[in-house]
Design a protein that fits this description.
Number of domains: 1
Structural class: mainly beta
Order of helices and strands: EEEEEEEEEEEEEEEEHEEH
Helix content: 10-25%
Number of helices: 2
Strand content: over 45%
Shape: globular
């Protein structure tokens, strides 16, 4: 199945309005909820319950000048078992944030089922003075079904660019039946990976180093060797990244929320407004 969801957020009258330019099943959005800070909060739905073998799904999110949006999901992205002769499932995410715009993209975890073959490509374009917060969690599979690292292939590509330079270029591929995910060069004793990104284009490097320091302190507090480890690092420009590995998913959402709240207050001077499901 080929399907596209295209969302556009525009600032108007002190608030942000949602425009849906394309919506094809299994994608579904109901409405955007206005936030007290003028932002619009939106839940993404996949009415099929997950990504099927051979699916090619596109998600486009465009935040206009001065607009503020928060996009989250209603549940984990489940990647179903690959079918013989079907192509790998694919999900393509294209995000753009215009000048003085702000986007918080806070999806639930990606869970590849046993036998899954999946590719996810995320491309982000940030204009001058754009602000972007994003987290991502990758699970090893359905642990309750004894499916830890039983998927066939998972490829995750990420590109984040400003108008002048690439900020992040990543290409990760896991093939547990070929290269053990739990080798010391990959996941080691851990099962879940998590990332948090905070960008503000044009922010002075000294500010980003200060944010790195604050996030590093939270990372140290949240780390417990053998259970969960976290680390934070300022990028070459315009952002800070936090990485984590964990042997359990239990504390990941709360810890990611701590990083997000710290970064949002630092970069915008405003408190984070958690999605309703996190309250």
């Amino acid at each position: 199945m080929n399907a596209r969801l295209a969302l556009r957020f525009e600032a108007a009258g002190g608030r942000t309005r949602l425009r849906v330019d394309a919506q094809e099943p299994p994608w579904k959005v109901i409405r955007a909820f206005p936030q007290a800070n003028g932002s619009a909060m939106l839940h993404l739905h996949n009415v099929s319950g997950g990504v099927l073998a051979g699916d090619r799904l596109w998600l486009d999110i465009a935040v206009g000048p001065g607009a503020m949006a928060q996009v989250t999901s209603t549940g984990a992205t489940r990647i179903y078992r690959h079918r013989t002769e079907a192509p790998d499932s694919e999900q393509h995410i294209a995000i753009s944030v215009a000048e003085n715009g702000l986007l918080e993209y806070l999806p639930d975890a990606l869970i590849p089922f046993a036998g899954a073959r999946h590719q996810q490509r995320t491309s982000v374009s940030l204009a001058d003075h754009a602000t972007f917060f994003w987290w991502e969690v990758i699970a090893p599979g359905r642990q309750a079904m004894d499916e830890v690292f039983r998927f066939e292939s998972l490829r995750v590509e990420t590109q984040v660019r400003s108008n002048t330079r690439p900020l992040i270029l990543e290409n990760v591929r896991l093939q547990p039946f070929i290269d053990s995910a739990q080798s010391i060069a990959r996941m080691g004793p851990y099962t879940h990976s998590a990332s948090f990104y905070a960008f503000q284009v044009g922010r002075p490097a000294a500010d980003l180093r200060e944010l790195e320091s604050r996030l590093s302190e939270t990372a140290r507090e949240a780390s417990s060797p053998g259970v969960t480890i976290w680390g934070a690092s300022a990028l070459a420009s315009d952002g800070v990244i936090v990485r984590g590995l964990s042997a359990t998913a239990r504390d990941l959402p709360a810890t990611l929320a701590r990083f997000w709240k710290t970064a949002r207050l630092f970069l915008t001077g405003e408190e984070a407004v958690p999605p309703r499901k996190m309250k």
